[in-house]
């Protein structure tokens, strides 16, 4: 190495083809050194010196410890031939090797000869498979010096032998980190171009660079059309009503393939960068509405409460800078030093307090925890509105302004927005597009989180945060707020206004699940329900900060299980037998609505089963009209609840009816409760219904595995939805008659259940999806498909009626349980609406 070089360092060890060393830039010590690797005078790779070498840092008294490197000689040079290895800096000077034969000796290169037996397995990797137009997987690289596993590997992708792209395996994968103890930033998602997705079959090869080692599972062969359609195909009926149905369905699927969405959630960063510029005109539009409606808006002071406990200085500075950059400037920022140890943060806090009078620093003598620190801020708050901000997160510039305008326009006391996460690389990931206020969902998970703004009067009324719930203190705070304020004053602003930074600390919290936070969450939900006099047992769902609630009602209101059918004795008998065998609930009656059965087998079945003391037969010899059959049955029998059930739905859980009844019986404002329905192959057929102008109604969760969590655990948590299917629907009898039951005139067959749900919601009641009640549904086994020619005219008329009737209602235009930024079509929670539109 020459004297003039800006770089210094050494290759310290070469063993079994693994080179370990370090290098620094003397002139620019903050920069990582890039080394160029040469074998036999040919450059084969570039490596970055960014691995932890605190031992060297201490020896040379350097400002950073991430100055190390390791390099594994590629397999193609392990051929038992003699080769020469050399490392060069960017100024072409060489990085010297320590001479193992001579103390103090230095070498500009080394010679080596390796065999295949010297191969080193430094990677663990896996291809998860094909989903939603992308190949997903993960890669971890073993640091052979420390033994730790790191992410952020480079991968070269080939399709049918042609190079497609090079990507970084740096996506957030907490599941991999939890299982391996390694870096969570190790995932990859190869989005396949539209043109390639039209191929019938393709072979993908994924090579880890620079060694060009195959990812485990590579080459990966995908039948692209088959795989793209898998979720749709598994939800098709096991029988085919006619050739027409097949052609119709295939035509729809082909159209979906041709018209692939422009934005998908895996590529959220691309969407986000197009979306954020639109927040400025949206904010101005809200301001104009304020003026047009003559709403008194006198620039209220907003208090931003930010507990501070030893964040990284850079991230903390960026967090504060995001407050300075707010378009709304009438704020005060309360920075609560929670007994931190960092001298540079304390220095920064003093500097900030001097820099701007709007910033006030509150110093606690010792670390009190998040609740106590937040409470110290609440006590000093002077604003009309109070917001909560973490010390290393970021606010979107329009956050305060758009939140305030929304609060005044909606007459809200509590406003919450959507949020996303920000990787250290600057990439936006994992957007949380939330539903409108959803109390039942909130019981199961704190989905509100950031960004939250609350009226100061309400904060004073609800009281301080409680340290005994630290780890879930914000969940407890929200639940207590719901106890003292009308739920219609809680407004969801469906805009991304908050970036949650994915620091190493926050990652560790995700991986470990913070057992104390889980315990605190169970306690805060349990205590809330006790205060609300709702008896229940709360438990963690799969060891996470999501909660399952087992209601413990002391009453057993009478339930009439209404089952319309015609013939199909075997199916109907199986349905009834399972009800009788697998229902622990005591107070129920089965009403079999016979719509003109004539088969001898069915008549024998009816003759036998009418003798059962729980079963009643109601013969109705009319043309099939699902809505009318159920209405006549409901008018015929006296009960406190009606359980509308298809004769091809089979139950196995003995507590199924107890779960449904308790969801409704304990809450006066719940009118309908739906179930999770599976296909016979175990995949989900129904996890609630989403309504829209473009598709009328469609089932959530189609094609998912039974235990798939879904988007933000939406598939496994009970929640309020806009509609559920009447294939298995519990309805309060009083509510059913209040809205005049099913529409038997305009919706004889299809959409009558969705229409009923919409009218029940319009009347002020809630529709709840009970994720814990699971049954198997052989969809349309009894009736057949709406795709048959003889049904087409009727089906199209029912679609027209739904759109004509509900098109002007807010809940039909934008389903409150579904973000307007997701396309309202399968796969749900995946395809994003173009921000331009």
TrEMBL record:
<dbReference type="InterPro" id="IPR001173">
    <property type="entry name" value="Glyco_trans_2-like"/>
</dbReference>
<dbReference type="GO" id="GO:0016757">
    <property type="term" value="F:glycosyltransferase activity"/>
</dbReference>
<dbReference type="Pfam" id="PF00535">
    <property type="entry name" value="Glycos_transf_2"/>
</dbReference>
<feature type="domain" description="Glycosyltransferase 2-like">
    <location>
        <begin position="303"/>
        <end position="412"/>
    </location>
</feature>
<dbReference type="InterPro" id="IPR029044">
    <property type="entry name" value="Nucleotide-diphossugar_trans"/>
</dbReference>
<protein>
    <submittedName>
        <fullName>O-antigen biosynthesis protein RfbC</fullName>
    </submittedName>
</protein>
<feature type="domain" description="Glycosyltransferase 2-like">
    <location>
        <begin position="561"/>
        <end position="681"/>
    </location>
</feature>
């Amino acid at each position: 190495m020459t004297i003039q070089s800006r770089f210094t360092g050494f290759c310290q060890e070469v063993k079994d083809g693994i080179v370990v060393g370090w290098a620094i830039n003397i002139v620019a010590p903050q920069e990582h050194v890039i080394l160029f690797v040469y074998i036999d005078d040919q450059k084969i790779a570039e490596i970055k010196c960014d691995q932890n070498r605190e031992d060297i840092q201490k020896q040379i008294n350097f400002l950073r410890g991430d100055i190390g490197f390791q390099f594994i000689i590629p397999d193609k040079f392990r051929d038992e031939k003699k080769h020469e290895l050399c490392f060069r800096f960017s100024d072409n000077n060489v990085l010297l090797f320590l001479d193992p034969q001579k103390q103090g000796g230095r070498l500009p290169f080394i010679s080596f000869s390796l065999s295949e037996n010297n191969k080193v397995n430094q990677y663990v990797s896996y291809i998860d498979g094909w989903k939603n137009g992308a190949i997903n997987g993960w890669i971890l690289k073993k640091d052979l010096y420390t033994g730790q596993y790191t992410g952020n590997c480079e991968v070269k992708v080939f399709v049918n032998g042609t190079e497609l792209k090079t990507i970084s395996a740096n996506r957030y994968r907490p599941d991999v980190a939890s299982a391996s103890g390694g870096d969570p930033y190790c995932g990859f998602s190869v989005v396949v171009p539209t043109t390639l997705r039209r191929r019938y079959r393709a072979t993908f090869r994924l090579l880890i660079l620079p060694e060009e080692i195959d990812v485990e599972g590579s080459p990966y062969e995908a039948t692209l059309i088959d795989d793209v359609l898998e979720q749709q195909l598994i939800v098709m009926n096991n029988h085919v009503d006619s050739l027409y149905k097949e052609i119709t369905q295939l035509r729809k699927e082909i159209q979906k393939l041709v018209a692939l969405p422009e934005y998908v959630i895996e590529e959220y960063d691309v969407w986000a960068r197009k979306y954020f510029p639109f927040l400025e005109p949206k904010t101005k539009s809200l301001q104009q509405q304020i003026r047009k409606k003559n709403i008194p808006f006198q620039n209220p002071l907003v208090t931003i409460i930010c507990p501070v406990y030893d964040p990284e200085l850079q991230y903390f500075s960026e967090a504060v800078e995001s407050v300075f950059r707010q378009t709304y400037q009438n704020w005060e920022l309360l920075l609560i030093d929670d007994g931190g140890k960092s001298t540079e943060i304390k220095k920064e806090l003093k500097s900030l307090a001097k820099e701007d009078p709007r910033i006030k620093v509150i110093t606690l003598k010792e670390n009190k925890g998040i609740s106590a620190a937040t409470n110290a801020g609440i006590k000093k708050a002077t604003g009309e509105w109070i917001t909560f901000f973490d010390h290393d997160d970021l606010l979107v510039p329009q956050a305060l302004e758009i939140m305030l305008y929304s609060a005044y326009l909606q007459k809200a006391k509590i406003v919450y927005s959507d949020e996303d996460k920000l990787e250290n690389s600057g990439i936006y990931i994992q957007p949380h597009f939330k539903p409108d206020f959803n109390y039942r969902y909130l019981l199961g998970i704190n989905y509100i989180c950031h960004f939250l703004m609350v009226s100061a009067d309400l904060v004073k009324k609800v009281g301080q945060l409680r340290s005994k719930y630290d780890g879930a203190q914000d969940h407890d705070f929200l639940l207590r707020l719901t106890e003292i304020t009308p739920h219609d004053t809680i407004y969801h602003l469906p805009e991304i206004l908050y970036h949650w930074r994915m620091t190493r600390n926050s990652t560790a919290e995700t991986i470990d699940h913070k057992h104390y936070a889980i315990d605190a969450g169970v306690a805060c939900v349990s205590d809330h329900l006790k205060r609300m006099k709702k008896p229940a047992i709360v438990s963690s769902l799969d060891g996470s900060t999501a909660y399952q609630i087992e209601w413990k009602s002391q009453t057993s209101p009478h339930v009439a299980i209404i089952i319309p059918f015609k013939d199909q004795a075997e199916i109907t008998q199986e349905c009834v037998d399972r009800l009788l065998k697998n229902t622990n609930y005591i107070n129920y009656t089965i009403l079999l609505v016979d719509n003109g059965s004539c088969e001898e087998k069915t008549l024998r079945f009816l003759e036998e089963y009418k003798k059962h003391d729980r079963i009643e037969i109601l013969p109705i010899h009319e043309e099939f009209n699902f809505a009318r059959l159920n209405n006549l049955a409901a008018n015929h029998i006296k009960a406190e609840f009606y359980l509308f059930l298809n004769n091809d739905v089979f139950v196995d859980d003995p507590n199924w009816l107890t779960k449904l009844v308790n969801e409704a019986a304990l809450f006066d404002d719940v009118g309908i409760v739906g179930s999770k329905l599976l296909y016979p192959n175990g995949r989900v057929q129904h996890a609630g219904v989403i309504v829209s102008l473009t598709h009328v109604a469609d089932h959530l969760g189609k094609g998912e595995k039974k235990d798939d969590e879904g988007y933000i655990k939406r598939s496994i948590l009970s929640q309020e939805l806009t509609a559920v299917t009447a294939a298995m629907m519990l309805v309060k009898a009083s509510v059913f008659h209040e809205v005049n039951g099913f529409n038997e005139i305009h919706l004889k067959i299809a959409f009558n259940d969705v229409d009923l749900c919409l009218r029940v919601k319009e009347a002020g009641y809630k529709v709840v999806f009970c994720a814990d009640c699971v049954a198997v549904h052989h969809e349309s086994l009894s009736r057949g498909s709406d795709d048959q020619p003889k049904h087409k005219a009727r089906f199209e008329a029912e679609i027209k009626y739904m759109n004509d009737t509900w098109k002007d209602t807010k809940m039909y235009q934008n389903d409150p349980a579904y973000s307007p930024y997701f396309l309202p079509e399968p796969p749900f929670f995946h395809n994003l609406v173009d921000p331009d539109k």
